[in-house]
Amino acid sequence: METIKKRAEFIASSKGDKFVTPSFIFLKHKLNGAYVNDPKVGYTASKKIGGAVMRNRAKRRMRFLAKEILFDNAKPNTNYVIIARRKILEYPFSQMANDLKKII
Questions:
Q1: Could you report the per-residue pLDDT of 68-79, keeping only the tens digit for each?
Q2: Integer angstrom CA distances of residue 96 from 21, 35, 104
Q3: C-alpha to C-alpha distance for 16 and 76, rounded to whole angstroms
Q4: Does pTM top 0.85 for this prediction?
Q5: Parallel, antiparallel or unpaired: strands 78-84 and 24-30
Q6: What's the DSSP call for residue 31?
Q7: Could you read off the pLDDT of 19-70 as tens digits, one per residue?
Q8: CA 91 and chain centroid, separation
């Protein structure tokens, strides 16, 4: 699964479906196109989360969550974005995984 790197793709993903949990916000954007693209995933953690160490920790948790759950269930021609919320650092990983499973 590829990673979203361009700002335009992040912005386009905000036009799709939005799901809010206590630890993260999940955006799902179905792409319109004639050919099939592999799904892409992007991770975002703003300075509201904390300093660089805290933001990196949040992104590591989101990447691991995506690897465990999202990669198996991702659909082609779809972009996914996971945005960290402040509680992601103290929220139990098992609860985050349950939240993502319910969304998917």
A1: 999 888 888 899
A2: 8, 33, 13
A3: 15
A4: yes
A5: antiparallel
A6: P
A7: 999 999 999 999 887 567 889 999 999 999 999 999 999 999 999 999 999 9
A8: 16
